[in-house]
């Protein structure tokens, strides 16, 4: 079933409203906001390779606030354990039974800050949740919910003490991009509003989580002409044969 003209107009109008809303907190970066929101609707995850202080945390919080969702931030370090990400079973003295305490991965938008600083074991735990959309602890499966998007970051400047993400694991991300530093006008605007430590707190929800899921479903019904599919297929085949491309 393909998308109707009315549904297409609703999708486009709603998407523009989301971009404008997030743009109130992430100044001068509407193109990046569009890319990240596109990943959410796809659905998929984003890898940002940026220096500190470019607004990665604000971006994640702003998107969550705009869609009436939850957001968490995980600071990846060498001593971070998989259970610190996914959650752990804890014994409850009152009920005399083990109960699952959810980790920070249970949110609609998860910022995985400096993911390449964690050990490969912890990276794998995070990337598995990204692929499967669920966590299994002691044989019990827990769904992380929908929508679910991970915005992971890497610092391109400091590489000491990091664990490079393998090529196969990079495939978990729909796109890799960079926010970059703000332009002159945006920098002045940020300085003028320096009292606002977190602009995302000023945002009000524009749509519900259910509306995001509806948009995701609509995106999957977009008609693709067979000629486009043929072109994409040939492009992939030629890429695999090209000696300049490793994977």
Automatic annotation (TrEMBL):
Residue ranges of every copy of the ATPase AAA-3 domain listed in the record: 45-175
InterPro entries in the cross-refs: ATPase_AAA-3, CbbQ/NirQ/NorQ/GpvN, P-loop_NTPase
Keywords: ATP-binding, Nucleotide-binding
Stored Pfam families: AAA_3
Annotated GO MF terms: ATP binding; ATP hydrolysis activity
Keyword Ion transport in annotation: no
Gene3D superfamilies, per the entry: P-loop containing nucleotide triphosphate hydrolases
Family the entry assigns: Belongs to the MoxR family.
PANTHER family xref list: METHANOL DEHYDROGENASE REGULATOR, MOXR FAMILY PROTEIN
Protein name, per record: AAA family ATPase
């Amino acid at each position: 079933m393909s998308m109707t003209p009315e549904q297409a107009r609703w999708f486009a109008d709603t998407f523009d409203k989301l971009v404008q809303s997030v743009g109130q907190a992430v100044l001068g970066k509407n193109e990046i906001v569009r890319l990240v929101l596109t990943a959410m609707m796809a659905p998929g995850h984003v890898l940002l390779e940026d220096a500190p202080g470019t607004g990665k945390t604000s971006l994640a919080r702003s998107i969550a606030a705009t869609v009436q969702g939850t957001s968490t931030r995980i600071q990846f370090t060498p001593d971070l354990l998989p259970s610190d990400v996914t959650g752990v079973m804890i014994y409850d003295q009152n009920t005399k039974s083990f109960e699952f305490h959810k980790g920070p991965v249970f949110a609609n938008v998860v910022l995985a800050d400096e993911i390449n600083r964690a050990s490969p074991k912890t990276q794998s735990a995070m990337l598995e949740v990204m692929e499967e959309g669920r966590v299994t602890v002691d044989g019990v499966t827990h769904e992380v919910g929908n929508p679910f998007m991970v915005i992971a970051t890497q610092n391109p400047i400091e590489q000491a003490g990091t664990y490079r993400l393998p090529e196969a694991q990079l495939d978990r991300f729909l796109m890799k991009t960079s926010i970059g530093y703000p332009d002159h006008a945006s920098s002045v605007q940020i300085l003028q509003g320096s009292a606002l430590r977190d602009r995302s707190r000023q945002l009000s929800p524009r749509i519900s989580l259910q509306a995001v899921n509806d948009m995701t479903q609509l995106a999957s019904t977009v008609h693709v002409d067979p000629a486009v599919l043929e072109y994409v297929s040939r492009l992939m085949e030629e890429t695999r044969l090209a000696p300049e491309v490793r994977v």
